[in-house]
Amino acid sequence: MNRRTFFGVAAGLTLADAGPLPSSSIPVIDTHIHLFDPTRPQGVPWPRKDVPAHQVMYMPSLPSRYRKVVEGLGIVGAIEVECSAWLEDNQWVLDVARDDSVMVGTVGHLTPGAPEFRPNLDRFRKNPLFRGIRYGLGGRAGQEVDRPEFIADLKALADADLALDTANPSVALLANVVRVSDRIPTLRVVIDHLPQMLRPAEPAAQASYDASMKAFRERPQVYVKVSEVLRRVDDKIPVDLEFYRPRLDEILDVFGIDRVLYGSDWPNGDQWLPVPVGFKIVQEYFMGKGQVAAEKYFWRNSIKAYKWVKRTANQPQA
Fold first, then answer.
1. What is the total count of domains within the chain?
2. Is the model's pLDDT at 1 over the cut of 90?
3. In-domain check, residue 201
4. Digit-coded pLDDT (tens) for 141-188
5. Beta bridge partners of 163
6. Which residues pair with 105 in a beta bridge?
7. What is the DSSP track for 137-160?
């Protein structure tokens, strides 16, 4: 599929094109969307207009457009995950979220171990929509786990009853999630987009990956987003559940039904296919596990992970 064809498919697919969805009265909390507006005078650091793959989402991505994208899916609330490293964009998102009740929380961008972390954490945590921070633990960032000030700041995050989202999964990131959870067992950690990462082929990487998966079985404070499920294979994107079932089974086997969360990754996921296509796959999979399991995945577990703010009558609470 070339770029022109992909953009045409992504633009044209709708909820109807995803095929019939299993009937369900389960409300859904989407724990992973991004908000930004490239038309602002200052622009945005991400997505980038000069990156071809970003062009499909290079437009205002605000709650009003999100509501239209997910109409008919049963989504009643969403949590934003910050995609900008600009400090004041934390406030910009909180202001945007304040004005639309579909937003039940935001996960900000702050840097643990930096001198300004504590003042900024104290500033933003005063807003009840601020539910945690996202910070990568892979590659060089993993070296920070040995810094006392880094661990102290994450301990402050845990003491504030806020969560830590991790960036895109890698062997190093997973190993460092284990290290962080060892040092701060009270910190709720959410691993983003694990379905995109397959078990590595290289023996040393396999051993590290397997050790992390084994450790996660015994860490009830570590959650995982079953998000970015879709994968491109030989320039095609399969849309049949059976293609994805083995990977979903692996994740559920490790984390169990009490620690999995739904996330659309909108609008970043539009680089694959529109939200309804991926939603149909996970809805079919988790509804196949029964009503109780589907409720845990689609909303109950999100309350435990984020302790988000109920803003409307149709947003569920345990």
1. 1
2. no
3. yes
4. 678 898 999 999 999 999 999 999 998 999 999 999 999 999 999 999
5. 132, 188
6. 79
7. -SGGGGGGGG-HHHHHHHHHHHHT
pLDDT at 34 over 70: yes
CATH of the domain at 284: 3.20.20.140
Any domain includes 207: yes
What is 12-57 written as a DSSP string? H--TGGG-PPPP----EEEEEE--B-TTSTT--SSS-TTSGGGGGG
Residue 316 lies in a domain: no
Q: State the pLDDT at residue 143.
A: 80
Residues with Cβ within 8 Å of 39's Cβ and at least 6 positions away in sequence, in order, are: 60
Domain boundaries, position 161: 3-16+26-306
Cα–Cα distance, 181 to 2 (Å, whole number): 42
The whole-number pLDDT of residue 15 equals 46
In the prediction, which pLDDT does 8 show?
37
Cα-based torsion angle of the residue sequence 235, 238, 239, 244 in order, rounded to the nearest 10 degrees: -140
Q: Which residue has the tokens 């051993």?
A: 207
- DSSP code of 199? P
Show the 3-state SS of 87-138.
Answer: HHHHHHHHHHHHCCCCEEEEEECCCCCCCCHHHHHHHHHCCCCEEEEECCCC
What pLDDT score was predicted for residue 166? Answer: 94
Cβ–Cβ under 8 Å, residues 42 and 310: no
Would 317 be classed as within a structural domain? no
